[in-house]
Acetamidase (Amniculicola lignicola CBS 123094), 613 residues
Amino acid sequence: MATESPPRYKLISYLKKDEQYSRIPSSWLLPAYLIPASYAALSPPDVSVLARDGNGQGNGKGMGMGMGQGECVLDVPRGCGLLTERELRITECDATGVAEGIRRGVWSCREVVGGFCKRAAIAHQLTNCLTEIMFTEAMQRAEELDRHLAEGKPPLGPLHGVPVSVKDTFRVEGVDASIGIASLCFKPSTQNSTLVSTLLSAGAIIHCKTNVPQTLMALDTHNNVFGRTLNPHNTHVTAGGSTGGESALLALKGSALGVGTDIGGSIRIPAMCGGLWGLKGSWERVSMKGVEGGDEEEGGKVGIRASAGPVARSMRDVELFMRTVVGGREWERDADVVPLPWRGLASSPSAGLGTGNSEVGKMIDKKKLRIAIVRRDGIVEPHPPILRVLDSVSTKLQNAGITVEELDLTPLLSQCHSLANALFNVAGSNYMFDLLSSTSEPLSPWLHTRMKRSPALPLSAIQKLLAKRTLLQSQFLQIWKDEKGEKKFDAIITPVAPHAVPPIDRWNSAGYTSSWVLLDYAAGVVPVGVFGRGDMEGEMEGEARGSWDRVNRELWTNFNREIYLNTPLAIQVVAPKLHEEQLCDAMSLISNVLHPPTSASTSPPSLPMPSKL
């Protein structure tokens, strides 16, 4: 009896996964018992591959820290024995620290890249976060960069020798940009995306590309080619999307710096899920030229425009990325990028802008910073722990001498949600469906009821939607100034989402992030803490505002709240259009207040260490 052949997309997936496996050295493979499949059936929250400190009891007021009682915590990168102490020291530095170590001769580019490639291989086996693996090519480039320095030449740029991972959407010459679509596999890019070229010119080493959701329009990272990416903090919850692979990789320190794109929250949502910093600038600030989006070339310009930006392990790395990329004068190679040089921060570029550095508070005058707290969007009511996080952050900022005021934007934000949704797909999804049907590839489960073929909107309808957006943008301009035309505040703090990091495929509304894309504002994420048992307290009040709010309440009322234990909590910080420097300043100071100096260091040792590689 003849056996029916699998659909073509499955055959392609088998080949891509085999290719991935072949690119990981056999000596870097983990024993089977450390792979999540062997313990993912445990009840939450017993499913983390990251170590934490504390007792996980929380305080009922937001930001509980640590582990739940009886929890199985596996610090796999440290405990697996594959990484040497020197490799651990290297990979636990942020990108700024890595660049400093290379510049001072503490480490060679080769040993830095070797350590991060090994840790990326570990991260991939634990979370399935990678697509294209370029370890061999990365090591070759590292050797070239070492020779460059050995010849007495200055570093190529601020990222000389720094391992950087990029979302699969970015084209890297010689490898696929399949975005998890079978029909786009085995079609290597013939040239780099403009942003990739900028990073390489600054000395970066691209060592891998990271996983994305099918169609790039899901808030959980799953596709039929590479599979699902897991959240290393708690494998029962989402890693976010569409930059979810970067989130998992950076959380496990498999890259010094990550690069993603954001059209509705695709950098900020994964940053929250991974306990990371992330920034989405206005779309005109960082080049998106040459990025694979699964649509017809330049087709995305009609509706809402995506932005590129960093996913990072420290705030100073966010600023390093922006300073480097904007300083790369991409407007000379991409007409969409405005010719606006990086204007610098109020803090010194050399000061540490993030956890463990007290200089930020000294460099920026806290008394001059004014922050507005926006709690609600008028569509979806945040869960009690999300509102408590805002309370706690507000109190800490005020205690640090920062002016904080409450701001009600519900009359305006409530209009953004539906308008953003209407503009997301004005061209229809027919091109994407054509790509899928050519290999008989089905939609991912989460997309089945959310995406369908549809005709492009007529020009008259698009014009009306764009007119509404222009009116909203004009109205929002008024919130930043008082009656005398003086600036009222520098930044807005608001939730990233109305809920904590939810179970896989259960992310609710993206309105708290998509609204700022609609307005083309600069927005970033600052991690705050970890959901503890005390954060499970509190009930939703009143009736549901509508269908979106009703679904959100289902993630809290009569819901097993233990699923949220040990997941990151974060806030979103927003600044006006093209004010990325102002945003970085605000995020830096807020980060310093929320994460006061500790004994932990993200910088290299003070003296050179003998190489063991």
Remarks:
- The chain has a mean pLDDT of 90.
- The chain is about 30% helix and 10% strand.
- The longest helix spans residues 109-127.
